[in-house]
Amino acid sequence: MSEYWLISAPGEKTCQQTWETLNSTTGKQNNLSTNWKFHIPDLKVGTLDQLVGLSDDLGKLDNYVESVAKKIAAYLGEVLEDQRDKLAENLLANGVDLPNYLTKFQWDMAKYPIKQSLKSIADIVSKQVTQIEADLKTKSAAYNALKGSLQAMERKQTEISIERQFALVAHRGSLLARNLGDLVKKEDFVLDSEYLTTLLVVVPKTYYNDWYNKYERLTDMVVPRSTKLIFEDQESGLFTITLFYKVIDEFKHHARENKFIVRDFVYNEEELTAGKNELTKLATDKKKQFGPLVRWLKVNFSESFTAWIHVKALRVFVESVLRYGLPVNFQSMLLYPNKKSNIKRLREVLTQLYSHLDSSAGTGGGNQQSDVVDIPGLTGLGQTEYYPYVFYKINLDMVEGLQVKPS
After folding, report:
1. How far apart are CA 216 and CA 174, in angstroms?
2. Which residues contact 331 (CB under 8 A, 6 or more apart)?
3. What is the three-class DSSP state of 389?
4. Is Ion transport there in the keyword field (predicted)?
5. DSSP labels, 45-60
6. Are 22 and 130 contained in the same domain?
7. Residue ranges of the chain with pLDDT lower than 70?
8. Residue 6 CB-half CA count within 13 A
9. Rounded Cα gap, residues 123 and 307, in angstroms
């Protein structure tokens, strides 16, 4: 289980007494839960109308901030790929694991000044997390595009490799299918000439003598003695030949009639180098972006998660004031049910302990909607569960299937 219960109850004679009663009833006496005080500072209360309106807004903000934190956590898992087993250790809040942060929660006065109104603090959180979500979209789109290009290039290389393997056993030989850029050199070609060019011709080994005897006479304007064997496999050879541009088409036609196949190839050193290096470049770029992206995700997961817990604190404060009235006098507490089988019993004990706070809550089941419609602040709960005490669940499983256990 990664589920915690954040509750509050009014101070009895003192808030400390409220805490001791809860802890002795559920902790020491029955061993139903492990409990911590949840410290909320003295926030500005505002008017009743403001609190009622803010209660509903905080419910929406709660869901939104949680969703952004979970998006970041899920995307960090995607980015880690084969290191995904390290995801849990990367999901930290202020440098500590999530249960540790939650159970030792301290309000961040620098980020969320308590001298400001509750609405202003909520707006600070909303603006902060909205910006984080926008940045996440931008960064994930850029990284996914690079990752997609790399995967496409890797698939292409795999396909080419498979094609070459098939070509090796094809009756016409692999030289008709393979990438010639791996076989040629700059010195094999006449370059930067206004009139002359070099062609690459695949000649079956059984026709070598025909080639040497005929290539100069297949058309006019072939440079004598210009052919050179630059590569051969088991079935064919790759020859160069130099001729004038104006007779290329005629030469190709006559060569084909004699079973000599001219490969369409233009030597471009920059393109060949780029082609060879593209996969390496993409892999290098991905590696360069990986580290900074992981760091950004870790930092902003922490920012989002801590903002989320502050929203929970705001909700507890607002609902407690609406429930228990002024002056502010309540104790907020965090409970961790020790066993899943204990949940029902723990709920019963809490209901018995706090039933005097609100008779309309009955036994604390989730089917009391008709009895509690007019209770101030209920709309802000964002859930059908209603109990005589303020109650919120906090589930620390930020990624499906990733269990986060208490410290």
Report:
1. 25
2. 8, 9, 10, 11, 15, 16, 18, 19, 22, 37
3. coil
4. yes
5. ---HHHHHHHHHHHHH
6. yes
7. 1, 157-173, 271-276, 359-384, 401-407
8. 26
9. 11
**177 belongs to a structural domain:** no
Same domain for 227 and 297, yes or no, is no
Judge if 17 and 139 occupy the same domain: yes
The pLDDT, as a whole number, for residue 156 is 75
Give the domain extent around 317.
Answer: 3-145+293-395
242 plus 338 within the same structural domain: no
Instruction: Assign residue 66 the CATH number of its domain.
Output: 1.20.1460.10
Q: Encoding tokens for residue 5? A: 């219960």
The answer to whether residues 250 and 351 belong to one domain is no
The closest of 183, 182, 185 to 157, measured between CA atoms, is 182
Handedness of CA 282, 283, 287, 288 (dihedral sign): negative
CA gap 378, 234 in Å, rounded: 83
DSSP 8-state symbol, 274:
H
Torsion from C-alpha of 352, 353, 354, 359, nearest 10 degrees: 30
- Quick: pLDDT tens for 105-133: 999 999 999 999 999 999 999 999 999 99
Report yes or no on 231 lying in a domain: yes
In a domain, 391, yes or no: yes
Contact between 21 and 352 (Cβ < 8 Å): no
pLDDT digits over 135-146, tens only?
A: 999 999 999 999
User: Between the CA of residue 242 and those of 33, 227, 258, 329, what are the distances in Å?
Assistant: 88, 7, 18, 96
pTM equals 0.70
Token readout for 152 is 């496409």
Q: DSSP label at 340?
A: G
Spatial strand order of the sheet with 390-395 comes to 33-37, 330-337, 3-10, 390-395
- Decide if 171 is inside a domain: no
Which 3 state secondary structure label does DSSP give 231?
Answer: strand
Instruction: Tell which residue, 251, 249, 324, has the closest CA to residue 239.
Output: 251
Contact 260, 201 (CB under 8 A): yes
Residue 335: closest CA among 100, 39, 38, 107: 38
Residue 73 and residue 28 in one domain: yes
Structure token pair of residue 26: 């559920």
